[in-house]
C-alpha cells in the first residue's frame, strides 16, 4: 500500500499551502470527513486552533490504522500563576528539563498568531512571532522550574537592560524545538536576576536565538514601583497642558473638566 505523507498548517498560512504535501487544517479536515484515505501519514505544523486539533485527533482515531499522526500533539505549556492571573496557554508545548540549566519544548503556535502576524499570510515567521515565542518560553520555564513554591507570587519582569536577538535561518510554520538555557542567576536585594537564552531549531538547524535578563520581584514590590511610575507619568501629562486643554506639542486633547489641582499631592 502506498504511503502519503502531508504536513498540516493553520489556515492563517493558506497562501503557503499547495494542496499536496503542505495543506491547511480546513482542507485536511474536509478531506478526512468526505473520504476514507488509506496510507495517510500526517505531520502537524503550526497555527491550528484547539478545535481543529481536537477534530483532527478524532478523525484520525476514527480512520483506524489507515491514517496516523506522526509525532505527538502535546497540550500547550502555561504561564501566569506567578503573575497572579489564571493560567495562560503558551506558544510552546510541554516543557521538559533535560539538564539542571536546560529546558526544551516543541513550538506550538495557535490561532493567536493572527494578532502577531496580521500582515503576513505566507512565508516565514516574523521576528515579532519569534520574540513572543521566546518570551513565553522563558516565563513558563521560570514559573515551572526556577521558582520555589513560596515564590509563586513573584512578578517576572523582562527586558533588563535589553533583548539581544540573532536570526540565522528562516523559520516556517513547521515543527520546531525551543530550548531555554539558564546562563546566570544572581540575588539582588528584594529579588533576583536571571540571564536566559532561548534557541529555536527547525529541521536540525539553529534558526534563531534570543537572550535577555529577567528581574524577579515580589508582586507587591513590583506593583508599588509601577504605581509610583503611573502617578509620575500622569503628573507629567497634566502639568504640560496648555490653556486650550491640549498636551503641549502633541495636539492631544485632555478633558477641560480635568485640572492639575484635582491631583494635588501627586509626586512630580
Automatic annotation (TrEMBL):
Domain of life: Bacteria
Protein name: A-factor biosynthesis hotdog protein
Organism from which the protein derives: Thermomonospora umbrina
Lineage: Bacteria, Bacillati, Actinomycetota, Actinomycetes, Streptosporangiales
Amino acid at each position: 500500500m502506498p504511503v502519503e505523507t502531508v504536513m498540516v498548517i493553520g489556515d492563517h498560512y493558506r497562501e503557503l499551502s499547495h494542496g499536496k504535501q503542505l495543506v491547511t487544517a480546513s482542507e485536511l479536515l474536509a478531506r478526512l470527513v468526505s473520504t476514507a484515505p488509506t496510507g495517510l501519514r500526517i505531520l502537524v505544523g503550526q497555527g491550528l486552533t484547539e478545535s481543529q486539533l481536537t477534530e483532527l485527533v478524532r478523525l484520525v482515531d476514527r480512520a483506524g490504522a489507515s491514517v496516523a499522526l506522526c509525532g505527538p500533539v502535546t497540550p500547550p505549556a502555561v504561564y501566569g500563576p506567578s503573575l497572579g492571573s489564571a493560567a495562560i496557554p503558551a506558544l510552546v508545548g510541554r516543557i521538559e528539563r533535560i539538564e539542571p540549566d536546560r529546558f526544551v519544548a516543541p513550538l506550538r503556535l495557535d490561532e493567536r498568531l493572527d494578532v502577531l502576524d496580521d500582515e503576513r499570510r505566507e512565508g516565514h515567521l516574523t521576528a515579532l512571532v519569534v520574540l513572543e515565542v521566546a518570551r513565553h518560553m522563558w516565563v513558563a520555564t521560570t514559573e515551572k522550574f526556577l521558582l520555589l513554591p513560596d515564590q509563586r507570587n513573584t512578578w517576572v519582569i523582562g527586558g533588563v537592560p535589553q533583548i539581544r536577538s540573532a536570526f540565522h535561518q528562516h523559520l516556517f510554520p513547521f515543527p520546531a524545538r525551543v530550548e531555554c538555557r539558564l546562563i546566570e542567576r544572581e540575588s539582588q536585594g528584594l529579588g533576583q536576576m536571571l540571564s536566559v537564552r532561548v534557541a529555536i531549531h527547525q529541521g536540525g538547524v539553529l534558526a534563531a536565538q534570543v537572550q535577555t535578563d529577567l528581574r524577579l520581584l515580589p508582586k507587591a514590590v513590583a506593583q508599588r514601583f509601577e504605581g509610583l511610575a503611573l502617578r509620575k507619568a500622569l503628573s507629567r501629562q497634566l502639568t504640560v497642558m496648555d490653556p486650550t486643554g491640549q498636551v503641549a506639542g502633541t495636539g492631544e486633547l485632555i478633558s477641560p473638566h480635568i485640572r492639575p489641582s484635582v491631583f494635588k499631592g501627586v509626586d512630580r
